[in-house]
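Predict structure. Chain length: 201.
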Amino acid sequence: MSVFTTYLQLGFWHIWSWQATDHLTFLLALCAPYALADWRRVVALVTSFTVGHSLTLALATLGGVGVNVPVVEALIPVTIMLTALLNMGRVGGADSRLPRRPTSVLWALPNALALAFGLIHGLGFSNYLRSLLGENSRPVTELLSFNLGVELGQLLVVGIILLLGFVVLRGFGAARRDWVLTTSGAALGVSLLLLVQLLAK
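Prediction complete.
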């Protein structure tokens, strides 16, 4: 197996594992306000998140920035909490089944936050990748393939969340407000638990 394939799989399975509960929960919070029909909006959000975490993943892995692991680990649950709270604050009326058309400000704010939070999550990814690389100081191939694997895993997670939302909203006729509050509330609860566990160490 080539180095590229090995690190591609490591990136993918890093997302699809219990070790990545924090990142999976963030994706849930990020996608919670949107339905399958909003896939273009979700692509814009995920792209912003990807740009952020790809940048810091590269810089930290290649030694461009230092990583304070305890601080980064604590900040990741905070990004989930803020995203979930933003969702709950923006939720529509009780009978809302479809998202409101966003204004330019509401369109830009989630993208900016996704980009900023991606910077933090990228530092978390880099900590895992650097532990795999050991003494390899400039692992360009490994970095690229690992990041691609993370993106493939991330896209699969997002697709599943959107499909699940489609089934709940259209198949079961659930109100959009209930879906957003339930999923965002679940993400908020998980993030609080993760933060408490980190602080208790």
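Summary: Residues 140-171 form the longest helix (32 residues).
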